[in-house]
C-alpha cells in the first residue's frame, strides 16, 4: 500500500506498549516509525531499552529504532501519535502534543471524561468520533485527542451494549476478578498476590460506571448525553496474569428470554466488523455454553484477544446473570487503540 | 474433667477430618476416641492411614489409634459420632447409625434440607436445635441427626444475620471467590486452576440460597419457617488454598447508616459467646477498615479461624456492599461441627 | 502429496495425545486417521471424549472421528500406530499390536531398555534405527517397535551430545526442576504443589542415567554399546505448568573453553536438520546469553517447542555448568515421536 | 528479669525486621526498645510506618514506638543495635555506629568477609566470636561488629558442618531453589516469577562458597583460617514464598555409610543447644525419611523455623546426596541474629 499511516508510540516499552509494537509490526497500513520512552532511555536502541516479555522476538524493524523523547520535535513527521503512557504522566505530555497540532490516540485516563473528547470502544460507540468535528473549536487545540477506556470498562461494556434494545436495565451489580497485568508488569509483588485475593483496586470502582455510561451515551446536538445506568461495581485482584473477568447481574423489569440474550450477543456486529477493519474481531462477543467457562487460561485467544468471551448466561426471575472475560492488554488496551485509529481513517478523521 | 464427651469421627483422614482431629486434641471436654476411614484403611494405625497435611504433628493420642469401620459396632461406646464424610457416602452411613441410636453431628450435605433436621451454624440459629425434641418421633429414629451447612453458606450467612433487624432485604447479589481446598485435597489439579479462575462450582449456587434461608428461618410450632430472601449467587473458584470470600450486595428500601451496619457486625454476639463455649470466637465477626481487606493470606486466623472477617462496607444509595471472608475448613466445616456439639451439651441435648 | 502416511494414535485424549493431534493436523505427509482412547470412550466422537486443553480449537478433521479401541482390528488399515499411552497400559497393548504386524512408535516406558528396541531422540541417535533391521528376527515379531525416551532424558541429553568430542566427561551432577504437566493433567493436585517444591519424582532418577547412556551409545555389530557416563540426577517438581529444566554440572579433566562449548551447542545440527524434516527445529539448541535465562515462561517456544534452550554456560576449573530447558510435552514427547516417524520414512524403515 | 538487654533495631519495617520484632516480643531477656526505619518514616508510630505482613498482630509494646533515625543519638541508650538493613545502606550506617561505640549485630552483607569480623551461624562457628577480643584493637573501633551470613549460606552450611569429621570432601555441587521472600517483599513482581523459574540470583553464587568457607574455618592465632571446600553453586528462584532449598552433592573418596551420615546430622548439637539458649532449636537438623521431603509447605516450622530439614540422604558410589531446606527469614536471618546475641551474652561479649 502506498499511503501507510505513520505513527509514533509513547510508552513503547511498557506491557501495553510492547503489545502495540507487536500488533503494529504486522499491520497492513499502519507503520510504527518512532518509539518513545522515559528520558533515561532516550537514544538507546529499542531492543536495549525494553525488557521484552512477549513470547516472540522483538519485530526486526523496531528492534534497532532509537528511543525518542515525548517532545513535538520528535513526532512532527508522523501522522498520529499513539499513547500507552502511564496515567500520571499522560496529561501534560499528551496535551502539549495536541496543542502543537498532533493527533493523539491514547489509553491513558486523563481527559477520558472531558465532554469534548470521544472515549472510544470501537464496537460500542464509534459514532462518538463525531465529537472530533467540534473538538478543535471548543478546545482551541490545533490537534485532536481521542481516548480509549479503562481496560475493565472496555471489557464490561461489550456484553451490555447489545442488550440495550432487548431489556430495560434497572441496576447492574458487577464483581470483577482482574488480572495482575492490569497493574503493570511490576505493579504487584509476588509476595502480595500469590495464593491471595486483594478485594480492592484503587480508583477502578469509580471509573467503571462513569466510563461505561459515557460510552453508552447518545450524540445529541454535537454533545454526548451520558447513559444513566445504575452500576454497582466491586473490583478484586486475583492471582492470574492476563484476563479481566466480570460477574454481571443485570436487574430489569422486563420479560426476556435467555435465548434472545444469547442471540443478541452472538450476533453483535458493528461498523468495525462491517468495514472488515484489520484489527476488528469477526465476532466481538464469543458466547460459550460450557458451564465452567469462560476461563482466563482458555478463553483469551479468540480473534487474537480482540473478542470478549461471555458465559453462564442465566435468567433468574427479573435478573440476567452473565460472566464476561477479555484480554486486558489487547481488548482492554493495545487492540482498541489500534482499532480506533483504523476507524478514524475509515471515517475520514485523519 | 470427669465427664468427657467421648466421640468418634467418620472421614477422619480427609482435610476436614484432620482439622477436627487437631482441634479435638486440645479440647477441654470432648475426647476423640475412635477414628473411622474408608474400608481399605481399617485396622491400620491412624498415622499410617492418613496423609497428614496440617503443619503440626499428628496429636500423639490419635497417631496410634486403629482405623475403624463406619458400622454401629465400632461406634457403640461413644456418646456422639462426628462426621466429615464425603457427601456421596454420608447418606447411607449416617442414616444407619442414627437409626441404630447414635447421635450424629455431620458436615455432609444429605438431610440438610430435611424439615426435621436442624441445620446449625451456631451463632446464627442455635435455637433450631429445638427440632431435636421432635425429631425422634417424627422420623422414628432412635438416635439424633444434626447437620452443619455447606462451607460457603456457613460463611456468607454470618454478616447477613446481624442485619436482620437493621435493614429489610429486597435482594442479595453475591459473587464468591472460593478456595481450592473447598473441593478437597485432590479436588482440583494444579493444571486446571493455577493462574486461572473457574467461574462455576458444581451444585453450590443451588445450595447457598436454600441453606441460608433455612438457617435464617424462625421456629414456629416446632417447625422452621424458612426465610425468604431473594439471593442471587455466582460461585467461582480461584487459585487460593484456603479461604472463601463473598462479595455481597444487599438491596434494600431503607435508610440506613454504614456506621450502624459496622456496629451491628462488630457487636454481633450470641449464645456461644455468652456461654463462653470453648470453640466459640470472642468476636464472630471481625470488621476490617483498611480498603484492601479482607485477604485470604492475612485474615483467616482470627480466633483460630472461627471468625468471619468483613470489610469494604459501603452504602451506595439503597445498596449495602460488603465483603466477607472465612476459613472454609474451620468456620465452614470442622469448627462449627465441634461448636455445635458444645451447644448441644450446653442446651442439654446429649 | 499422494502418498500420505496414515497413522492411528493410542492415548489420543491425554495431554501428549492432544499435542500430537494438534501437530499432526498441520503435517504435510502424516495423516491422523484413527484415534483411540480408554474403553469407556469407544464410539464417542473425539470432541465429546476429550477434555481439550490446547488453546486453539480441536482440528476440524479430527473433532468428529469416533474413538476406536486398541485392538488390531481397529488399526489394521493404518501404516503406523503412534502411542501416547500411559506407561502402565502400554506394555501389553503395544506388544500385541507389534506381534500382529503393526509398526508402533511410542512414548511409553516399557521396552525402552530392551536391547533390540531403538530408543530414539532424533538428533542424538537417529543411527540407532538400524536396530530395526534385526528386531523382527531377534524378537520374532511381525511388526516393529520404536521407543522415545522419558521427557527429561530427552531434554537433558540434547546439550550433552554435542560435547562428546569436545570434553571427556568424568561425572555429571544434575538437578532438575520439572513442570507439573510431566505428571499428566491430573497428576498433581493444586493443594500439593502450589507454592511448593516436591524434591522427588517417582522412578525418574533411575530412568535418566540409563536412558541417556543408551541414547549416547554406539552401534557395534548390530547392537548398541551403551555409553558409560556417571550421572547423578536429583529430580524435583516445581509449580510450573510446562517446561523441564536441568541444572547440569559436567566434571572433566580437560582444558576446554566456554566459547567452544557455546559454539558446539549453537552449531549442533544432525540428520533431521540436514534433511530438513518437517518437525525438525532449524536449531536443536538455542544458546541464550542473558544471565537469567532460560525461563519456562519465555523460552519454550523456539521452533514450536522442538528446541532446547541452554543458558548460564560457565567454566569453573574443570567443571562445566550449564542450564537446559525444554518443552516436556513437545521436545520431551509428542514432537520427537513425530520426528522419529519422519526419520523412519526418510531412512526407509516404513 | 532485672537485667534485660536493651536493643534497637535498624530496618525494623522490612520482612526480616518484622520477623525480629515478633521474635523479640516474646523474648525472656532481650527487650526491643527502639525501632529505626528510613528517613521519611521517622517520627511515625511503628504501626503507622510498617506494612505489617506477619499473621499475628503487631506486638502491643512495639506498635506505638516512634520510628527513630539511624544516628548514634537515637541509639545511645541501648546495649546492642541489631540490623536488618538492606545491604546497600548498611555499610555506612553500621560502620558509623560501631565507630561511635555501639555493638552492632547485623544481617547485612558488608564486612562479612572482613578478617576481623566474625561471621556467625551459631551452631556452626560460635567459637569465631573470639575475634571480638582483637577487633577493637585491629580496627581501632570503639564498638563491635558481628555479622550473620547470607540466608542461603546459613542454611546450606548446616548439614555440611556435622560431616566434617565423617567424610573428606573433594567437591560439592549445589543447586538451590530459593523462595521469593529472599529478594524482599517487593523484590519480584508476580508477573516475573509466577509459574516460572528464574535460574539466576544476582551475587548469590559468589557469596555462598566464600561465606561457607569462612564459617567452616578454624581459629588459628586469633585469625580465622578459611576452609577450602570446592563448592559449585547454581542458584535459582522458584515461585515459593518462604523456604530456601539446596540439592547438595558431596563428592568424597571415603567409604562412608548413609546411616552414619544420618546419625551425625540427627545428633548435631552445639553450644546453643548445650546452653539451652532461648532461640536455639533443640535439634538444629531434622532428618526426614519420607522420599518426598523436605517441602516448603510442610517442613519449615520445626522449632519455630530455627531448624534445617534434611532429606533424601543417599550414597551413590563416592557421592553423598542430600537435600536441605530452611526458613530463609528465620534460620536464614532474624533467628540467627537473635541467637548470636544470646551467644554473645552467654560468652561474655556484652
Automatic annotation (TrEMBL), chains A, B, C, D:
Molecular functions (GO terms): aspartate-semialdehyde dehydrogenase activity; NAD binding; NADP binding; protein dimerization activity
Residues of the Semialdehyde dehydrogenase NAD-binding domain: 6-132
Enzyme class: oxidoreductase
Name the UniProt record assigns to this protein: malonyl CoA reductase (malonate semialdehyde-forming)
Organism of derivation: Sulfolobus tengchongensis
Pfam families (alphabetical): Semialdhyde_dh, Semialdhyde_dhC
Keyword DNA-binding among UniProt keywords: no
SMART domains cross-referenced by the UniProt entry: Semialdhyde_dh
